[in-house]
Amino acid sequence: MTGLFADRHIGTDAAAQRTMLDALGYDSVDALVEAAVPASIQVKPRATSDIPPAATEAEALAELRVLASQNRTARPMIGLGYYDTLTPSVIARNVLENPSWYTAYTPYQPEISQGRLEALINFQTMVTDLTGLATANASMLDESTAVVEGMLVARRGSKSASNVFVVDADALPQTRALLAHRAAAVGIELVELDLARGAALPDELFGVLVQYPGASGHVWDPAGVVDAAHVAGALVVAAADLLALTLLRSPGSFGADVAVGTTQRFGVPLGFGGPHAGYMAVRQGLERQLPGRLVGVSQDAAGHPAYRLALQTREQHIRREKATSNICTSQVLLAVMASMYAVYHGPDGLRAIATDVAKKAEALASRLRSYGLSLRSDAFFDTIRVATPGASRRVIDRARERGYQLFWVDDATVGVSVDETTTADDLAAVAWAFGLPENEFLGAGEQGERVLSFTDAAPLAGVPAGLHRVEVFLTHPVFNSHRSETAMMRYLKQLSDRDYALDRGMIPLGSCTMKLNAATEMAAVSWPEFSRVHPFAPEDDVHGYLAMIEQLEVWLAEVTGYDAVSLQPNAGSQGELAGLMAIRGYHRANGDLDRTVCLIPSSAHGTNAASAVLAGMRVVVVACDEAGNVDLDDLRAKIAAHADELAALMITYPSTHGVYEHDVLDITQAVHDAGGQVYVDGANLNALLGYARFGDLGGDVSHLNLHKTFAIPHGGGGPGVGPVAAKAHLAPYLPSHPLSQRKDHAGGVFDGGPISAAPHGSAGILPISWAYVRMMGAEGLRSATAAAVLAANYIAVRLREHYPVLYTGEDGLVAHECILDLRPLKEATGVSVDDVAKRLIDYGFHAPTMSFPVAGTLMVEPTESEDLGEIERFIEAMIAIKAEADRVAAGQWPQGDNPLANAPHTAESVVSDSWDHPYSRETAVYPIHTLVRTKYWPPVRRIDQAYGDRNLVCACPPIEAFA
Questions:
Q1: Which of 1, 210, 687, 903 shows the smallest number of beta carbons within 10 Å?
Q2: What are the φ and ψ backbone dihedral angles of 384, each rounded to 5 degrees?
């Protein structure tokens, strides 16, 4: 192909590809891929396409500007868990827009992730301090899904045998809808009660949700409900506003067992609903029930404090159908931003912001009351509900005239929420919308206009004194040491320097596709027309967003061979769940209530089984043969055994072993013949795009990973987007939302239950994938696939004489990743897969995926973004490490004291006065001469994982620990 963006995105040029093809024995890249991909599933490039020809970077940005201009930049005062916020510029520039933070991978290699792990420890400390609970995890996907996870924690932690979960009638509407959808699948009965008005709990229940403050803004004391729930053996989940908790009693202080919510208003832009970092904290005794990721403090080989992911056996890769949650990601980049917002402002600054917010709400309320309007509650923090009998629409329309979005509750009630961005002039305009005279406000602005002053208002005037916070919070020095711009900038730089991200070098992770996230793709994320848009804004205010979303839905449908795409799932795990829930909905609509068995190959990604269980299905494992393919005989036997119960088969293509299975059409046909549906996991679409389509393989539904194949960055472990794509018969069961601007999509009307808190999920980062597809075009996407497959096969060929390549297809080729078997190395030399992974750090690399899907192996995926020089550097490192292992086997270095066993080596370790190792300091840190000028120095030595789990500490350690 010629020119354009694809030539910059794809790292290998024609000359490099010729070199690689010669090593493989193929005449062209197309010939290689066509040999690897079974001919029975290949598709030729379409003569006509819904994807327009590739645009230049300038053209794509210009088109995005047009779309952005179609979003009305109104002032959102809708609330319901989403607020406008001011992102400190030092955080926007040095975190959100900094590739050192947004191109990092999940911190599974903790020695080279100490910066983001420290930021996440700050996040966890912030959450535990504000909620008054013992342990917080490293973020959730959003508030509503966090509530669902809280419900599941309560079910596991309660001693009650009941299936009843009580939901506060004043919970957020999106949360109530999501709870209903998710609870039905796992047999939980929801009972909605007006808890604030004293509704009595049922005699038997396992949990209660209270919203604090309520969706209506009402602040009340849940202590009585908590006590009654505990007497019944139930656990209490409090969905709490973190900013409000700087002024209100914490959930821990009134006895809540679990606290959940969102950290969005801590400097994270609205983004039409996401991505945002949800949070979860639990009381002591429930920490091992926490879903998702948990960062803990351990120590390295020198005894120094070091951070790493704690209790990793909770990861869904390991627990599979026994997993208690299907979440295998978090929202790291957004959690970092929220934690740094707390570091930047400190406890006094956060309290001042919250006090100002409360004053603004009280000033507006007082003014409205003085003109005879009544409020639904006089106890509130930032949200009021105003009685407007028969006039709600008129009030909202008047507000829109002035550029403000209020919330229509019903014909007799309007909701107004204020935030840190709200000004006195905004309050005056809102008061005018309610009919107050414009010329009788309480003060004068700088230009002489009449404004509604809030400086003298009493915050929390209607809230009982017993609910005012007296507990201290954020006392750790990290939240009290970075008041100047200089100090904050240097702290962020210090942390990013401790990490390894794509801005340093290749991250060759199989299964997780760490490709380039180009700057032009990222540019529009920060534009206010995209970033400062409320997810429940009126349809007329978001035409640009809706047009972009529809275009992306159409493009993704075309490249996958499906009819409909929902972009609502905000992670791959949620896309899996949405697809399985669509299958569940389809079978139930057809009266097939007994179809609950989900067949899953033994090689599958762990979240497949966990998602199936959460969709109310029973997992039956299908064996794989020695080549890593689905065992057709076992599949047919399992289908025959469960023919009347078969709901679905989940299969990953290419397989989790990195191979194109030649029997895939036979597999899917056998399932369809038995009345089941086929779920094709889209994790490996990077090896298929442009050459084959899931819908043509017999797939009925798939999730895609936009953070893999479509260039959304991993952000250190999140954000992600996991759209669900389906054939027309499943489209009616794709996710809908009670507050969505529209139910009709390019592929039909979606009427399934919601899967995420916002109608369009993490819409704020969809401009990234839109720009990627727009600039690559259909031809560029196909070329990217070919380049990725070429790079993986080149590495496999170059390394196979040093490390066996575990699985290949019938033609000896792999897909976009290859599995290097290190088990023979361990047997011959004693050098483990861990040793190789840690030694790669000394060579300047992030390790490939370790021990997945096979223990004792490395799964390598170079992606299409890496150039031949970087690929050769990795190959050179792996060959050199094999030679080092051979020296151990030969007895030149002892097994327990050699460069691999002691890796990684810090600067401190090699400048120490004592050096009693049998290899030189230069061998330790400069095993290849080219590292001398470009060395990445890990900040800690190898971390003791077991020590951290035995001594579980998940909050900021005292400064003395680092002395």
A1: 1
A2: -125, 150
